[in-house]
């Protein structure tokens, strides 16, 4: 049960408005308690909007953020009302990456004086932070990310774990880690090569930390669309999320799960997994409902699907 | 022995014309018996043309099609005369996907009343249908697919199993499955991510079923060329197939097999497999013939290679 | 110890000039002894330039080349002074591929009269030649390759093992192997599919041996930049190498190693490996130095990193 | 539909006797048409007995055998009446391995004079023969093999593809291939190491072709039981098959499929596959029937399960 | 922080007695709050004893158990005082497996009427239960399990996830799942084949659910020792745990992690991971301390290692 | 070319005696120059004997040993005269493991003061030492190891990389690494689990460093035979090596390569690799020679096979 998100949405501050699509209202006035870095809302039926909300800190990721992301997406994964997620950043930029000031103590000064024991501590932290973004991937509901302005360091780790990436014209990206003396270890090096189809560019970005602007991001495939500004990119993300949310959740979530499975396995293994997956999923009523709608020239939006 | 294809090609209706390259004649007047959905011809030496031939049904894939594809490509795999294949669709469009009417009984109403036993039945069918497109991949002769007009649902599953994809200007593609309530289970989700280098786009296409037109298909790499119309795309496909068919079949087929192997294995494993493969293949006379031709400034087309 | 490279760089013929960036001087007057096909220099601090140097033979790869590459890159891997490598070809073209004349005896006429024993011999040679390019990948220092003019056959095998690819406007590429009757067996078929994000094009190139020019190479992602001519592409490569060399070698080399690991493993495995890798690497002083520089608004170039 | 096996069982020669367990009648008087090397019977409800039947040739495997095995096990896989299989050999010994005389032409004298083309032919044959034993593994019904006397060469390939192995006291085994100049290529080298838990012994057997007798076969785990003679080993195999056949086919066949999956994948992958598999299988009525029987202190034999 | 376990151990009911090795006291009088099915104690320095404690229910696994195991082992994983774990069962038998009565509602009657949605629910439960035993494996502290009497169904799933298995003479084991109509889905089918080296026996056990007694369990390798009775098996388990706890936790836990890694990867991958792991671990002071002790003819027990 | 071994064998000190089988002479009077830790001889046709020869140091492995092993086995791999190898230890025991005194400087005191740079150094050393034993595995000639007396620490790493293991009655084994504060990192943890079929025992040995004596080594499958003493175990090893050396080297070495491949891949992948391997290997004359000998009731020893 996703009690926090449920109560947040039913609370007085952010009422449940199924038809609400006004983008203007999307950027929340503050985080949704108990979260301190995330603002959760439901701008449209079956669509959850998660906003990284530390605008005065350029949405830098502090210690609380890493923990709250896991809690938030684990709840979204269980929330039967949610069928698609939009992720964005509040304020001027998407994110400036990790909050070095807040996290320095944890990363730069591991406790103890034995190298092995400090290493053990370091590994535990990295694994925990990796999980912060892996939850996005493990959550079966598709996540559309809307980037505007800067998307730096851990921001790239974050967006490569999302399913669909859009950005505004003023966006720029930087795999910044090499500049602060480390190899990016919470997802970028692992996911970026399968996200964009230009390995020379992947290497260049990761090894030089150079900025990449929105046009290049589009042409290399990091994002699938560039929109004029923050408002339009958010609207576009909402539209895509709306399209997804209107379809059978059995079909949509099975698609996400199998797409991710296919990335990590051979085609033969993926086909076998898919066939095994659909043993039960093809017995859903959604198939009959959808097929009937299709024959009647209706769209999925005309069909009511049960919760999943 | 590929008796059916051989007899079809030597039969009265479609005579063997080694030099025939007239595209006009390419669209057959009907399926080649015993096939009821496929028309087989040999438009040029060592090139086999397989045409999906249900034009009045928009080349929808019915039960017979799934079975005939396997039979057809297994025979092509064994046919020593064939060195390259062109695949296209007859009539107005490439294909509208599965023939829901014809297949509904099998898919939508599995027999029995026990979920597990129905699931068993479902898995058997999916596995059988997956094989329909996997035979294209298992056939060591390269397959060039020429798309025109609509390429919907199972059509995308089909073309992602082909080696080279071309399309006409009026083509559009749609990963339609999510619209009828299921996750695409006969190849698209498994192969598309390694076919095009833009994962955000792959996800968007698979999760929203939106149409993608030829220009975007070219820029994202789904097709390697866009031609003006059906006739020109077929001509271009024939030319590529002709180029391939003119080269050493030992070299060509070894290349296809190893490219597919590399997709599913690490680089180290693929290099090992390749070295093992070429233990025998480098002992071919084709190598000496080709090397000699190269030194004499001739092209592979000037060399006669033995059957394979 | 990288005695040969060290002595070469400290020898009278090619003095050590840390600040030397003059591109004009880059193309050496001859190979660096004891090498006969490679010219080694150090055009800038921490940057090693390896030039394939058989200009009068269009940089064709002879028997000596295959052996010298392994020796050269094994030494570079151990050389604590080197943090980035630029690879280019001397003369008119990058390379015309293998030197058929020189190598024919080895490849075309394996000794013995028993097929299995000849096969054994063939496999040993292929494995040895595969290693020639795999050393580029195993060397943890990033390799930027600058292509100009022709890059044919084994040249494509070579560049796909490099990390960053640039080319001049007049460059063209051809996976030539199929034209001489064999499947490319020293890396192209194994690495190209993960280098560029258009599988249809990969197949077309490998199966037809057609030329691909610089513009297409850029749009498909084989290279990340096209420069006007040989001089500018080399300058650009030096700049990128300089950027890389200025950063923490702990960060840079860990990044290369983990990017290559990620190509060959699932995301989950790669994240695990990365966390294990950084157990020790995050304890480096480079991290503190870099973080401090970042907070002081300095760049990595202002930091002095210890040898690695 | 398994027409051949069905008609064989309903024919006049070998009537359907559900309760027949008399071992004496098990060794058939001849092959079951249209098979020429296999005798098929149904000694007990839901149990199929496949007997390799060329007693006067010491059950040597001729060309027909390889083909008939595939046909036979594909039919058994589809036969809803069959829930477990017993495999044994007619006459004095289990099998002397391949029939060199019958197969020499195919294996020893491949057609053609080009090494690559002969290699192509050889690979096709090996792949076909590998499939002969892989069908045993792909058939979801467990196969209990009862060995007596000699089990040589391809006989070992065969039994390692079976699920449960028993043998009589007079049995002996030999991985004979190395003695006729080849590496065993239809399964032994691939399956034996995961079949028995003593790698030193596996290597010794495969590299020296020495005989291993029943006692050592038991102690190393090649067989799970040794019985006094052919009659008792067959009886024991029938009893085990009967035990298996009495249980829910959903449970039994899911168990076999997942055990084989686990052999070839990591534990994490196997757990994921298992959970996906049981999504549908746990919804079976067999579970409720079995659980109810268990609570009523009945055994699975008291439950009637639907066909699968 | 492992607050629960810490407070349990420091509480009045079960005082911390570093030297306590009296086996008589090992079987607790009841579960350790807040646990209701597990009793936690610390019988010796750095050794934690976890006892499955539902003796009047034959230690059947109810809903609470599945949850408490995860909580318990996650805490043990974090507890710096614990270096080895002994697991056993209270009362007459080790465990009779799942508590069908308690869990029937969850497993047998999934909510909803749509097959796909029930399947989704089923998968979530299975995954959760799999995690119950996987935490034993993920916990880097070695777990020695002491079995006595019956070890049935999920009990086998549990012990195959432990590192070292001992049993008493009266023990017997049964992979019971097939008898209640399902394929064992929480670990047995996935882990048993790599636990014991006799695949024929693994298959027989899993497909027939037959009992295996202690002697066979020893000879096939399921357990590494058989002791006369419950008391002696527990003493032996404590001794082994004590031996482990006396050694460097850096060495011990690194060994467990790498042994499990090796099970799921190729030797080459495992060697690479091991080398990467030891980059930091070999820099531990434990190595110097241990080496020095070895040179002084002392044992690890004479060395004091820091917490990990 | 294996110049060192060749010259050693043809030198005055250790003449080439093809028929020499006297075990007494096997233990050499000293290392074979230029080796300082290994003594090389050829006790029988096609059999090479490698003896670890530091008897006064209990065959402890010093720095020279690690380097010489690689050189030695790389030469053996290339030596066409050698078809099988026997490995043993000179003096009282097989080996006491690493020579801590000699290696302490390298392992215990890595140079530098930056953790990351020391880690880099440590990884290089571990990788180098891993290679010392991996060369045994990469050498396609089977290696039979004859153990007597102590086999400790790195000795276990060594023997698990050999193909066939024999030991004398007085042998004992200890995975000693945990006692000196590290996880065994040069092969034991990676190979032992696939060498013996009792995972509980593997874990116990690796986590407690306890001694295992010859009888247990036999019953768990670490060795395949126990002989009375050093002389008889060496004789038995020579006999097995002789059996192997008498067979077709094409068959023998292909068998070793494919057995190792199978350990690290799925059965399907291994079958594919095997079929590809035998494309060329089945075209060997050895097959015809062997088959003919078999038909004439001769043994492989009556056949003369060409060098490989």
TrEMBL record, chains A, B, C, D, E, F:
Keyword RNA-binding on entry: no
Reaction catalyzed: (3E,5Z)-octadienoyl-CoA = (2E,4E)-octadienoyl-CoA; (3E,5Z,8Z,11Z,14Z)-eicosapentaenoyl-CoA = (2E,4E,8Z,11Z,14Z)-eicosapentaenoyl-CoA
Annotated InterPro entries: ClpP/crotonase-like_dom_sf (IPR029045), Ech1-like (IPR045002), Enoyl-CoA_hydra/iso (IPR001753), Enoyl-CoA_hydra_C (IPR014748)
Subcellular location field: Peroxisome
UniProt keyword ATP-binding, yes or no: no
Gene3D superfamilies xref list: 2-enoyl-CoA Hydratase, Chain A, domain 1, Lyase 2-enoyl-coa Hydratase, Chain A, domain 2
One Pfam family from the record: ECH_1
Segments traversing the membrane: none
Keywords: Acetylation, Fatty acid metabolism, Isomerase, Lipid metabolism, Peroxisome
Annotated family: Belongs to the enoyl-CoA hydratase/isomerase family.
Function (record text): Isomerization of 3-trans,5-cis-dienoyl-CoA to 2-trans,4-trans-dienoyl-CoA.
Protein name, as recorded: Delta(3,5)-Delta(2,4)-dienoyl-CoA isomerase, mitochondrial
Organism: Astyanax mexicanus
């Amino acid at each position: 049960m996703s009690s926090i998100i449920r109560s947040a949405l039913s609370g007085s501050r952010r009422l449940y408005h199924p038809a609400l699509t006004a983008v203007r209202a999307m950027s929340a006035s503050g985080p949704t308690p108990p979260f301190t870095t995330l603002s959760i809302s439901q701008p449209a039926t079956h669509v959850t909007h998660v906003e990284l909300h530390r605008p005065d800190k350029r949405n830098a990721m502090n210690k609380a953020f890493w923990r709250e992301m896991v809690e938030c997406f684990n709840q979204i994964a269980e929330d039967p009302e949610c069928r698609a997620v939009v992720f964005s950043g509040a304020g001027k930029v998407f994110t400036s990456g990790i909050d070095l000031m807040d996290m320095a103590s944890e990363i730069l000064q591991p406790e103890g004086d034995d190298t092995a024991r400090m290493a053990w501590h370091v590994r535990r932290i990295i694994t925990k932070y990796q999980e912060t973004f892996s939850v996005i991937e493990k959550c079966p509901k598709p996540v559309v990310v809307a980037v505007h302005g800067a998307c730096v360091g851990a921001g790239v780790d974050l967006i490569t774990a999302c399913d669909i990436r859009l950005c505004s014209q003023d966006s720029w990206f930087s795999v910044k880690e090499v500049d602060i003396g480390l190899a990016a270890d919470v997802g970028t090096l692992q996911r970026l090569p399968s996200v964009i189809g230009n390995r020379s560019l992947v290497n260049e970005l990761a090894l030089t930390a150079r900025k990449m602007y929105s046009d290049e991001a589009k042409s290399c495939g990091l994002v699938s669309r560039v929109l004029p500004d923050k408002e339009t990119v958010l609207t576009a993300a909402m539209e895509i999320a709306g399209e997804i949310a209107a379809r059978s959740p059995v079909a949509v979530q099975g698609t996400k799960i199998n797409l991710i499975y296919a990335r990590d396995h051979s085609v033969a293994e993926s086909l076998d997994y898919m066939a095994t997956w659909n043993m039960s999923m093809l017995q859903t009523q959604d198939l009959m409902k959808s097929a009937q709608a299709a024959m009647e020239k209706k769209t999925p939006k005309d069909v009511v699907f049960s919760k999943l």
